[in-house]
Write a structure and sequence with these properties.
- By secondary structure, the chain is mainly α.
- The chain has a single domain, classed as Up-down Bundle (Methane Monooxygenase Hydroxylase, Chain G, domain 1).
- The protein is 55% helix and 3% strand.
- It contains 16 helices and 6 strands.
- The protein has a two-stranded parallel sheet. It has a two-stranded antiparallel sheet with strand order 2-3. The chain has a two-stranded antiparallel sheet with strand order 5-6.
- The structure holds protoporphyrin IX containing FE.
- Protoporphyrin IX containing FE binds next to helix 8, helix 15 and helix 16.
- The site of protoporphyrin IX containing FE has 23 residues, from helix 8, helix 15 and helix 16.
Length: 440
């Protein structure tokens, strides 16, 4: 092992020797991505035509059912129920590819959530449904086993794997995208799903930069100016990606109608983890493994957003909602979990910058070195940028959820996006406050 050489850092005549340069050039990563490598499949094979047709029809019916002024509200409600009751009992064996399975589980998740929540959201009943019929629950369960996640809608289904490009010649941006499926398919739903996907897309350069830094940390045997510069430049890529995420979030949420989101979109994607709402869970009819026992699953939740899980792990930011993030991983696709785990289990940049240590190897760094200070400043910018996005998101959650909840009747059980009850403000505020203390 070549030990670190502090004098080389303080020496103004320090030259980048070719050996050092090669060392950094060796840092080549195989492309790991939080997103699927291909665009989502838009239609399932013909054998599954009823699933596709039902997914096409449901939003039209649901829009009429939840429209207060609709004269046909009640009959449309029973039309929607019948549509789901009459779904054929398809085998999943003909779904051969990952793309087909991902699309199928998206549709089945939408059917399951519509079945459970429509009675309640439409006001036709004072409670949601406590079971899922077997034509939905059995294939949903079987696919969830193959994909190693619970049989309920996840963020990845609804956001990462539910979009199409309107114009293939243009780059992917929110103006050039549409969602494939939804419950209502109004603008509030469309942009709510798309912004999440776009925020994951914008996070990609940050993920690649984090993996590169950690690979460099693993391989470094001595610290020099070039190495510190490399760290700083890649931290700047992360900061710029976070800035992009923030800009997109702010722009999109200035256009989403909050009544439409709160009254029409929010209700359907909630899961069935809440014991007040689901005292005995939800029974998956025909699923032998569950033996008629009610199940409790979270619905899509921000905690399943992989970019922040990676950034927290990389910057080594500890907060009280870490446990929520870990729980959420059960619902995330394996390619995302692998990246989070890889980042979480790799050498921590923060430890290197503050304790001059990677694993059991110590390094000497002159804290007055310009490049070292720049790396620290860039690290801190990333922490601040993450905090800024979380502050912005707190404002969004407050406007679209907290303030709207206050207007609801006090005796109603109000659930947040992921099914948290009552404590979401405290949870989100805690995550922001923690960052204040976590710059270096
Ligand atoms: C109407 C818009 C939104 C509302 C009302 C909202 C609300 C919430 C709530 C209540 C939580 C706490 C956990 C839970 O109950 O699931 C949460 C967490 C979270 N949300 Fe949102 N959210 C919105 C939009 C978004 C968007 C578009 C993203 C994009 C990625 C996002 C990312 C997150 C993240 C990452 C968390 C976990 C906490 C964190 O890491 O900071 N949210 N959100």
């Amino acid at each position: 092992m070549i030990s670190s050489n502090p004098s080389s850092l303080t020496n103004p005549n320090f030259n980048v020797c070719s050996e050092n340069f090669n060392l950094l050039n060796k840092v080549v990563i195989t492309k790991q991505s939080l997103l699927h490598q291909e665009n989502p499949l838009e239609r399932l094979p013909h054998q599954y035509i009823y699933w596709e047709n039902t997914a096409d029809l449901l939003p039209k019916l649901i829009s009429q059912i939840i429209d207060e002024k609709s004269p046909d509200k009640v009959s449309r409600y029973f039309d929607a129920r019948k549509l789901l009751e009459n779904l054929p009992k398809y085998e999943i064996n003909n779904l051969k590819t990952e793309k087909e399975r991902c699309r199928a589980i998206l549709l089945l998740g939408i059917f399951a959530h519509t079945w459970v929540w429509l009675p309640y959201v439409s006001g036709m009943s004072d409670r949601p449904e406590y079971f899922i019929p077997e034509q939905i629950s059995v294939p949903l369960y079987q696919l969830s086993e193959i994909l190693a996640r619970p049989p309920v809608l996840t963020n990845s289904d609804l956001f990462d794997y539910n979009w199409k490009q309107n114009n293939l010649n243009e780059e992917v941006n929110i103006g050039n995208l549409d969602i494939l499926n939804g419950f209502i398919k109004n603008d509030a739903e469309k942009y709510f799903y798309l912004i999440y996907f776009v925020m994951t897309l914008k996070g990609e350069p940050a993920i690649q930069a984090m993996l590169k830094i950690q690979k460099a940390l693993k391989e470094i045997s001595f610290v020099n100016d070039l190495f510190l510069l490399y760290i700083q430049e890649h931290l700047d890529i992360i900061e710029r990606a976070l800035q992009e995420i923030k800009t997109n979030l702010a722009q999109v949420f200035s256009t989403i109608n909050k009544q439409d989101w709160f009254n029409k979109v929010r209700g359907f994607s909630v899961g069935w983890n809440n014991k007040d709402m689901f005292p005995n869970g939800v029974v998956y009819e025909g699923v032998k493994a569950y033996n008629n026992q009610g199940q409790f699953f979270y619905g899509p939740s921000g905690f399943q957003y992989s970019v922040f899980q990676c950034v927290d792990a990389f910057l080594d930011i500890k907060h009280q909602a870490y446990i929520n993030q870990v729980d959420a991983r059960l619902y995330m696709p394996s390619h995302q979990i692998n990246i989070i785990n890889a980042i979480e289990n790799s050498p921590k940049l923060r430890t290197f910058l503050t304790e001059f240590r990677i694993g059991d190897q110590d390094f000497s760094i002159d804290v007055n070195n310009k490049n070292y200070q720049s790396a620290i400043a860039s690290y801190n910018n990333c922490v601040r940028q993450l905090r800024n996005i979380r502050a912005l998101h707190f404002g969004v959650a407050s406007k679209y959820l907290t303030q709207m909840i206050l207007k609801e009747l006090e005796d109603k059980i109000i659930l947040t996006t992921g099914g948290q009850q009552n404590n979401h403000e405290h949870l989100l505020k805690g995550m922001i406050a923690h960052h204040n203390t976590q710059t270096i």
